[in-house]
Write a structure and sequence with these properties.
single chain, 129 residues, mainly beta, Elongation Factor Tu (Ef-tu), domain 3, 8-stranded antiparallel β-sheet, two-stranded antiparallel sheet, 2 helices
């Protein structure tokens, strides 16, 4: 299957939107310990980083303001929701801070969103070892 054929239609809490760009970091959480009179540090691996996808999204059409309002309502609901990410699929996420919403007279019929999400995860307490 081609890469384009693998893309999924994006939505958050069932409200669809188009995706212009998406990005997400990956890697490990580490803590580097440096001690007096030692030339070599000790780096401790604390596990994978939390998945935080960012999406440059838009809604388009004569009803773009109605679409905007539905998406804003979904984004403002408290707690985790289901994000259908175009390349990662279905994810349980929370909105991560402020969402930027913009329109431009020169573009017309389009509303853009700068979306940031964070993996919802689950409540669990640290264990030793």
């Amino acid at each position: 299957m081609t890469w384009k054929g693998r893309l999924q239609d994006a939505s958050f809490r069932g409200v669809p939107f188009k995706v212009e760009e998406e990005s997400a970091g990956t890697g490990r959480r580490v803590e580097t310990h440096e001690y007096p009179n030692r030339d070599k540090p000790y780096t401790e691996d604390l596990g994978k980083i939390t998945f935080r996808p960012s999406i440059t999204a838009y809604v388009v059409g004569d009803d773009c303001f109605d679409q905007r309002d539905r998406l804003i309502e979904a984004l403002n609901k408290p707690g985790p929701g289901t994000l259908v990410h175009p390349t990662y699929g279905e994810l349980k996420v929370c909105v991560d801070g402020e969402v930027r919403v913009s329109t431009s007279k020169s573009e017309g019929r389009i509303v853009r969103f700068d979306l940031k999400f964070v993996e919802a995860g689950e409540l669990s307490y640290p264990t030793s070892g």
